[in-house]
Design brief:
Belongs to the CFAP206 family. By secondary structure, the chain is mostly helical. The chain has helices spanning 2-17, 28-32, 42-69, 75-80, 82-127, 135-175, 181-185, 199-206, 215-228, 238-243, 274-282, 284-297, 301-305, 324-328, 360-374; strands at residues 257-262, 265-270, 415-422, 433-440.
Length: 441
């Protein structure tokens, strides 16, 4: 009964796809896709992309929390926000699992749809304009057509279930309230007005700012400041380091420089955009701590940003940026090297024979092989087909048969003549005789 139902569904599906018959209620366009769009499921791929992008944003949020946790004064806030971090990570795991299931199901859906289209094309090519067709030729194709349709329908149901599950997680995340957000991220998190326009930059673009000096004057002023004050973070934009999680973007002095005072030392901070200047001026201490936190996460940033003074507990030899004379004059606390490496002063050319054989038994084996090869003999003629013989290493002919084989196996062999000597040599009475005998094989 099940085979009959599958066969009937296959016939209805074929007529529905070929536009000969509506298909009696079968929703082929939704399950099999639009042939004009190459049967692509764009809505499902958009849902998968939304899930992946949401996971990426949640991952960035978790990374921000981890960076803030490296601040010395964030211990109490991090302890209170542990539940929030665990909740976000659990939601990310659910979303990633659903996204992986949807991605694999979409691949299976496309494969089943391509098989369905190929099977329908084969049925159309086999039927053609014929009016009489054998059942054995067309019934298996109709059965396969129904199976591919069922596979597409099941995959679509599975994908829709996973999408509904992902939307449920989205609703839970939207309804969740992070109570300890202020303690973790600081009171100024999200309070900076990024929509404020930079009046000086606007006037500079329209050439109506009378207070802005010319480019030559700006260049001379910048050189005079750089001679007095060093760059903080080696001239890289701190906002780009924080937003890009360690991304080094050189700052442009044309956007403005900020004079940073730390104790008795002064340094200049450059930025990559006017918006970065506003964000840094709104809460500079927060961004400075975040840059230090990224240096703790990625120690190679410390010598690149020239922040060795911020981390005095880390030996300078690990960075490789200090002079050797400074290490020698550092007193009893200097860093000593355990191992040193340098090039050879007088290199000598080495004559090494890589094919030298030192194994005595291997030499004996080669000698025995050479001796046995010397005694070998070949009795056949060397031709172009000698290497294709079964025993090509010996290359001898088998002994010739005594009889002659013909196409007939009876009374066709030639007569064999044999000669025997009768009598004893040296006898006085009977002389030695020669007898010829014919053997008819």
């Amino acid at each position: 009964m099940r085979e009959l139902i599958s066969l009937v569904h296959g016939i209805r599906l074929y007529h529905s796809v070929s536009a000969d018959w509506p298909g009696a209620g079968l929703n082929t366009k939704e399950v099999l896709g639009d042939p004009d769009k190459r049967r692509r499921a764009d809505d499902l791929e958009d849902a998968l992309q939304e899930i992946n992008s949401r996971c990426s944003r949640l991952k960035e949020y978790i990374d921000y929390l981890v960076v803030v946790s490296l601040k010395e004064e964030a211990g109490e806030g991090l302890a209170k926000g542990t539940d929030d971090i665990c909740y976000i990570r659990q939601c990310v795991l659910y979303l990633r699992s659903a996204g992986d299931d949807i991605e694999r199901a979409i691949e299976r859906l496309y494969k089943s749809r391509s098989h369905f289209a190929e099977c329908a094309r084969m049925i159309g090519a086999g039927m053609g304009n014929r009016t009489v067709i054998l059942k054995a030729e067309v019934y298996p194709c109709f059965d396969s057509l129904a199976k591919y349709y069922y596979s597409c329908r099941d995959e679509l149901r599975f994908i829709n279930d996973r999408i509904r599950l992902a939307h449920m997680v989205f609703e839970q995340l939207d309804a969740y309230r992070f109570e300890e957000k202020g303690l973790l991220l600081g009171s100024n998190w999200g309070s900076v007005d990024y929509s404020m326009e930079d009046k000086c930059s606007t006037n500079r673009a329209t050439n109506t700012c009378p207070e802005t000096p010319s480019s030559l004057e700006q260049h001379s002023v910048l050189e005079s400041w750089q001679d007095v004050c060093p760059w903080w973070s080696k001239g890289y934009c701190p906002i780009a380091i924080v937003d890009g999680r360690g991304l080094l973007v050189p700052g442009d002095p044309q956007h403005g420089l900020v004079l940073r005072l730390d104790g008795g030392t002064a340094s200049l901070v450059a930025f990559s955009s006017p918006g970065a200047v506003r964000r840094f001026m709104a809460d500079h201490s927060k961004y400075e701590e975040w840059v230090k936190a990224y240096c703790r996460l990625m120690p190679p940033l410390i010598p690149l940003l020239q922040m060795q003074a911020e981390f005095p507990h880390i030996p300078g030899a690990l960075f490789g940026g200090e002079d050797k004379s400074d290490r020698q004059e550092s007193g009893p606390g200097r860093v000593r090297l355990d191992v040193a490496c340098e090039t050879e002063l007088h290199p000598q050319q080495q004559h090494v024979d890589k094919e030298y054989e030192w194994n005595e038994w291997r030499l004996r084996e080669k000698l025995l092989r050479a001796v046995t090869l010397r005694q070998k003999k070949t009795r056949s003629v060397q031709t172009d087909y000698s290497s294709f013989r079964r025993d090509s290493d010996v290359q001898v002919y088998l002994p010739k048969t005594a009889t002659t084989n013909t196409s007939h196996d009876k009374w066709t062999n030639p007569v064999v003549h044999k000669r025997y000597l009768v009598g004893m040599r040296g006898a006085k009475k009977d002389a030695l005789k020669s007898v010829d005998i014919k053997f008819d094989m």
